[in-house]
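Handout, page 2. Input:
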Amino acid sequence: MEAVAADRVDVLLARRTVANARWFAAEAERLARLCHEMAERFARGGRLLAIGDTAAARSDARHVAVEFVHPVIVGKRALPALAVAAEQLSLLAEPDDMVIAFGADASAVRERGCLVIELDPGEADPFVCQELAETAYHVLWELVHVFLDHSERNVHDAGAASFLYPFLGERETDVEAVLEDVRRSVLMKAEEVGALREQTLTEGRETLLAAATALRACFDGGGRLLALGNGGSATDAMDVVADLVAAGRPALDLTDDSAILTAIANDIGVEAIFARQVIAHGRAGDALLSLSTSGGSANVIAALAEARRRGMTTIALVGYDGGQIAAGGLADHVVITRSQHIPRIQEAQASAYHVICELTGRAP
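Output:
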């Protein structure tokens, strides 16, 4: 039985490897030109609005917004982006705005002059579709800055952010040359996440199998999953909860209620925002899934400690070298995505939690 499950992980990885290579090879030039058009609209005062038609799709809309507004690269400008409800779109959209739609219909705002962005890889597997789309909108966020910078000066040195667009230090460039460099960078990023996904799912195979087995036992015993994370990882917590609920599994998103989060942060402190909710909701026999790119977020560590005190199964998806969570054995099952590049970590972690969901299975 274990061999069958291990083989299934290999099949799931192979499916993603093929889809990733195929889609980005076909879409690299379009994504590069899209970055250019988005930069021009941002420069004119346009905003990026994101909408989704399902709970999982809305997690992507929020992920888009947080990446553009709160860039993780020091020195990159905050760009105006907002996740909105579909019914708000017609009230908010203005001519220079961009709308990225996940499943939802945004065609009505085209006549206002809005740019409508669709990132649909056309894959039959919805998990694979989501993972490819996540890489694509991360790439848009990373590489739109190339054109914003180019509009201000010819680039001679990409500087500290050279890993985002490694070709730009080579020469003075015109727009067509920048487009070609960005196209190549898109392909490099797709290759990077492909390799990182393989590392995560192969090196972490046994841990993923054990985590799925433990989670299935949790559900079979009447338990629930609680999920959490910060920033982009919060939207990944939203996504995994949406996926499990769609499969008939009881799951709670501890990042969902802004009133609870802000009350705890204001009255006690940010470190308590998840642990306090584990105290309220966690029971022996439940499970906690934490997502952290650093493996060292204080509020994640506090929640894991509280979950253990309550007899909960703990699962952690972490980046870098695993951070304090891996070094201290702070979770029962720790899957490490070995990278220091936050967007790529999150993309590989999406594959990891989707594989856990698939191995756990639907409710009987």
